[in-house]
Structure of Signal recognition particle receptor FtsY:
Amino acid sequence: KETLDKGLEKSKSGIFEKISRAVVGKSSVDEEVLDELEEILISSDVGVDTTIKIIRRIEKRVAEDKYTSVEELDTILREETAALLEENNSQDVQNSFETDNLPKPYVLMVVGVNGVGKTTTIGKLAHNFQKNGKKVVLGAADTFRAAAVDQLKLWGERVGVDVIDHGMNTDPSSVAYDAVKVGVEKNADVIIIDTAGRLHTKVNLMKELGKIKRVMQKVLPEAPHEVMLVLDGSTGQNATIQAREFTKVTEINSLAITKLDGTAKGGVVIGISDEFKIPVKYIGIGEKMEDLQVFNKIEFVDSLFK
Ligand code: GDP
């Protein structure tokens, strides 16, 4: 929680300052305060639709309470936002670094456009699973981006897990096939497949991801168990747009939102979590191995709006 507070410092100081300014000279939460709050949430990348839902909830509560002092505003904001996310995210996937309740091997396919932190997130995941005593195999199937394979191999060495690669410009589905095969042979707990994310060629990407899935299913018919989309939180609304585009290309089961440290756009996690009904599983709050956290709605909202 402390690391999370620190990671979200930029986002929350912005929001906090704006709210403090909005309530100066006010004693109770009135329409004017709520109008300002609405603007603050939208400018904090929470997203228009989600902001409106939050404001409606607060309005209702304020109306029921008859008198709400401005001192209570941040508590109410936290509670209503958390309640909204809770309500809309019933189909939670297991979000932890444990695999005990998952099929073995568990095949996780990771998608996302270049630069969002996909490789780094895979490295961090490998580290966390490994730390919990799980055996991990990585597949370097992002064979298009220069250095992607090398970067994943570097993470593999750093963390101490096997990386299956065929070099650059090779067939990604053949890498995925081998990674799943080796994972099964070595009795791995988790197999994580890195894939290329060239969203500008949507039809090709759709075909390519489809092929990767079909080919790995020759080894393990139920694979992949999960497709995770990685989004760069520091791009704010762009992350939302990418989520919208990717969900058209392939089924997405979970999200990882990176680079929430050093950005004031942390509010985007709330909007994305509300809009897509796809559980946010992990958040990235730094470049190091340890800087990946399991996403907890209540803690996140608590850190952001405090
Ligand atoms: P990919 O192209 O999607 O595989 O992206 P990379 O994993 O290579 O990451 C791109 C850059 O973002 C690298 O410099 C990473 O160190 C950095 N990065 C990834 N995740 C985070 C994060 O949570 N916080 C910060 N500050 N940087 C990150």
About this structure: The chain has twelve helices and eight strands. The two ends are 13 Å apart (CA to CA). The mean pLDDT is 92.
